[in-house]
Amino acid sequence: MPPYRTNSPLLSSPTSIASSPPKREVPAGFLPSSRNKPQKLELLSRRELLDIYNRNKRILDQPAPSTSSYHQRLIHDQATIEGILGVEIIQDALSKTHITEDDPMGEPVPSSPPSRTVDAKRRALARFYTNTTQKGTTRALGLDEAVQLEQQAHMVAAERQKQEDERRRRQGLPVRGEVLSNAEREAKIWAFMNAKPSESDEEDVGWNATDSEDEDDPSNYFDYSDDEEAKGHPLVDPDELADLIRVDTHSFSS
């Protein structure tokens, strides 16, 4: 093992050892640790920018020489942060701005002149309203009158419903909202089946029966005797033609 030299610069100057610590070697299989690089101010959030701005302001307020590069870098960062925050403030103000239609936007569009028909209608309506206001104001409907009208309308509707129910009962139809038991239903059906017609009903039935009998008679289908005689055409009954028209019965036998 060689002897140490006494004139070595590392042994002769103890300050050099303290100022330059030995470099640590990276073990096998490990990556070297990355140094903390300063992040870009444009990528930071507003909260982080405010924190950096306040910290730099406290450092700049301390009594220190302003010629160092660190001091100049802080001043540059402060100006950059102020610019970024100013742009964000403008963007926030623009996002909160609302434009309504009431605000004048440019020159007003001139309206087209109204047609003579519309103008005449407006003048007629104005004249009508002027005459009505001169004659007197319209009397408002009081609460008592409104209640009275509502009661009258309700009475009329109830009377109409009562008449409708009576008509349905006479016809044997079920009344709306009425629930019958089996005995009541059978009694109504029995009364309807055993109901006898009145004299007026019998007269109507007899008149209709006579008409139906005349219509069912085939001999009356072509009864134009009165019409033909009125026109002057002589009518010949089939019995009078018995000597002229004969049927040969021998042909059927053969």
Task: Write up this protein.
With 254 residues, the chain is mainly alpha-helical. Among the domains are: 40-96; 142-195, no CATH class. Helix content is 56%, strand content 0%. It has helices at 9-12, 14-19, 46-61, 69-95, 116-135, 143-170, 182-193, 199-216, 225-231, 250-253. The chain starts with 8 loop residues before the first helix and ends with a helix.
Mean of residue pLDDT? 71
Which of globular, elongated, flat, extended, rod-shaped describes the shape? elongated
- How many distinct beta strands? 0
Main sheet attributes: strand count, strand direction, barrel closure: none
Which class best fits the helix and strand makeup? mainly alpha
In terms of DSSP E residues, the strand content is: under 5%
Number of helices: 10
Radius of gyration equals: 60 Å
The arrangement of helices and strands along the chain is HHHHHHHHHH
Region (Disordered): 1-39, 193-239
Biased composition (Polar residues): 1-19
Biased composition (Acidic residues): 200-229
